[in-house]
Amino acid sequence: MNFQFLPDFAEMSRKGFELVKKEIEKKPDLLFCVASGGSPSGLYAEMASYQKEQPDFCGTLKVVKLDEWGGLESGSTFTSEYDVQTKFLQPLGISPDRYLTIDPFTTDPTGDCERMKSLLELHGPVDVCILGIGVNGHIALNEPGEALNLGFHVSKLAESTLNHGMIRSLKQPPTFGMTMGVGEILRSKKVLLFIAGSGKKDAFQRLLKEEVSTQFPASLLWLHPNVDVLVDERAI
Description:
Elements: E1 2-6, H1 9-26, E2 31-34, H2 41-53, E3 62-65, E4 67-70, H3 80-92, E5 99-100, H4 109-123, E6 128-131, E7 153-155, H5 159-162, H6 165-168, E8 176-179, H7 182-186, E9 190-195, H8 201-207, E10 227-232
Parallel strand pairs: 1-10, 2-3, 2-6, 3-5, 6-9, 9-10
Antiparallel strand pairs: 4-8, 7-8
Helix pairs in contact: 1-2, 2-3
């Protein structure tokens, strides 16, 4: 892993943009795995700003959504889909034919995960995979456990995930996740892991130990040859 320590969120986001821009310039139609949440949101804003100056910047970019919450009430805006649409897809003008996604309100989560697995086999591997890290070390919604799934799958959410303040405040919180598996993540050609926000210090310190365990999914990224970890120093 290549750790890069940045003084604040803005600098972390700009560094992420530099790395992503370099990859898109090499391969404009690359497959980009987009994550929801606050940690990578600055990167997306940088990309959207640059696209205003260079309209062709993401003109052929293909996108796949990393994960999704399941069991939310119909119409909820807590979904990863809403987050990705408003922060990334709409600002960058990504058309539906260039976007692989799973419906947060699907009536067949297992079937839709199998569909996503097949789409990744057809269109993958991912060229650039954007990740955040959970307080328990999860990446995407691959939670700590004795064994981890390789492909896109329905995931059982950990108590530490369900106890997150934003989730606990929901009238109808999620009851499961749908997520890209660790095998698909590790097949990505390049991974950018953003560490920002509150509560990440312990996870970051454990990641530094270079010990691999399914009980700390982020540690599996030590097995990947091309990972940049972008750290907002205020989070650690």
